[in-house]
Here is the input.
Amino acid sequence: MKFNTADVATLLCAMQKRKILVLGDVMLDRFIDGDVTRISPEAPVPILSQSRIRQMAGGAANVASNLAQLGLHVHLIGVCGNDTAATDLETEINAYPAIHFDTIRIKDRPTSLKTRYRAGGQQILRVDDEITIDIDNKDAETVLTLATAALDKVDLMIISDYGKGALPLPLLSQIIAAAKAKGKHIIADPKRNDVSAYANVDLLTPNLKELRTMTAMQLSNIDEIGKAATALAKTHGFGSILTTLSARGMILSLPDGTQFHDPASAREIFDVAGAGDTVVATMAAALAAGAGLEGALKLANHAAGVAVGKSGTAIVAPGELLAHVGSTPPITDWPNIVSQCANWRDAGQKVAFANGCFDLLHPGHIHLLTEAAKTADKLVIGLNSDASVKRLKGNERPKQPSETRSAILAALPIVDAVAVFDQDTPLELIETLKPDCIVKGGEYTKQTVIGAEIVTARGGKVVLIPTLAGHSTSNLTSS
Here is the structure.
């Protein structure tokens, strides 16, 4: 695919509501932040003055969260204990209504918990609370039954194997065979040294350290890495291997020797926790939406670039991904758009209008705009200026300037024009544009929609679109 913002935006729209099965090792990631100002008198170790605790879904659950944030529907299957960590993990996952979580609770087996202690944004200690023995045959049979049933309803399957025991070898081979029998694309994120356990999957996603272990080779330059991955793909029947190379980006290797190397796109590296999960999720989402391998690779590389610039186990929103790809802002002045609307009407076309801040575009926004575009022939967006957003949302907003937000909106295939307004409401803009339809979210009533009387007086209509639960810019910026 030709990689530009418009094509990426089209792909992101195509992802919405695609269905993916994720199974493997779920875990809870806990981050304890504070300051270190002195060394303990009891031992030569720093004393952390705790200031904040955050918890996030990790492992396979982080893959699922990334998929949900991109707008896909996810069926997640994982193993937990009967403990507070499991309850906390379920709370984090339940924040995404698009994730259906089938959890197998096992008595006396602790939920995998990784606690990271950080001072000044730097990790100083990680404590893992878990056991890694394989689940027993009875629990494995439960996982297989759930996975086999779920395969009929999904576009693709991800195996997120962290080697914590949720996927014993016999179960892994049975699940891969079941997916193959149903013609499902399989992506496996491996942690096992014996790569034959993933034989015949369509895409394997090791990092360089894992590839070195799998091949027993000290791989250094890109050519060596690509050739080793190609040989591995040939031997074990992999459709392709995506090797993540940290600062050197990613390389995709096919059994026929074809190689795609994409350099790293990160602008600033803050925290690499969970970045691999973001890569796997974005690759899966892009492939499920119809992208080719090279296009999916490029998109995943950009997603990784966003993820490593965040603190904690990061998830990436569509608006962040589009901003990272970059594009030129559209013409947003009112006279130009008034002229466009006049030309459309002269051609017998109806014009719909929707407005908002659209800060960090997320699936809720895409849902609203997709439905809004169905109400008329053309869709014009009224976008709050930076000053207007600041007055409405506070001094910490917007997270993205109007130039970025307008460029992202204009890239969407469902948006025909973007007009920026500086007022607190779009009333003056609506009076100027004279749209045939105003579209707002379901939290409004027709009586409270700004400009409704202007549109209805001209024979137009007001349409209310039910909101998509679980998505908001506030949620994205609160972590």
Summary: The two ends are 34 Å apart (CA to CA).
